[in-house]
Specification:
By secondary structure, the protein is of the alpha/beta class. The chain has six helices and five strands, in the order αβββαβααβαα. The chain starts with 10 loop residues before the first helix and ends in a 6-residue tail after the last helix.
């Protein structure tokens, strides 16, 4: 089990998600992957975070969170793309583990440019090494999943509770280390 008392969240996030139970074995109707990436300019670090909310017949459930250092050079755009790559891989893993259920999947994002590239609506003019991988993963998922992936824009820095929920793992990776 996850001890959420050790998680750094904004007050709005605690109010909305603090009492949401962990997902156990309830039937999955769908899953929302909240993604974000950020760079700590002065440290040369960047990280991505994904927070999963599982939608069940009994309501919302915490599905977990994942974070990783940025793929390649530490920039905010690459961190955003890294978060979407993590979400795409997690969608595949979850879909493979629930073949009889066929839930819907949603990616909630704040970087419109990167999400447009992932969906094939916009070309990548820089960071193409990570964007080509991202677009390929999403295109592959679009072919193998029975339903389209839903894309939801959540404006950044607006204290949206679910969007802020992935800040803790990302912040831990991105923050400057003490004494450095």
């Amino acid at each position: 089990s996850v001890d959420l008392s050790q998680v750094w969240w904004h007050e709005a996030t605690w109010q909305q998600l603090g009492a949401v139970p962990l997902w156990q074995d309830e039937k999955v109707l769908g899953a929302t992957f909240y993604t974000d990436g950020s760079a700590w300019r002065s440290s040369g670090r960047a990280a991505a975070g994904v927070f999963l909310i599982v939608h069940t017949e009994d309501g919302m459930r915490h599905g977990g969170f994942m974070s990783a250092p940025c793929l390649g050079s530490a920039t905010a755009p690459r961190a955003e793309a890294t978060a979407l790559v993590l979400a795409a891989l997690w969608i595949h893993q979850l879909a493979a583990s629930l073949p009889a259920v066929q839930p819907w999947f949603e990616i909630a994002f704040d970087c419109v440019h990167t999400a447009n590239i992932a969906q094939g609506c916009q070309a990548a003019h820089c960071n193409s090494d990570v964007h080509i991988v991202l677009r390929s993963l999403i295109h592959w998922l679009e072919v193998v999943l029975p339903w389209p992936i839903y894309w939801t824009h959540i404006q950044s820095h607006q204290s949206h509770p679910s969007h802020q929920s992935q800040s803790c793992p990302r912040y831990t990776l991105c923050a400057p280390m003490p004494g450095l």
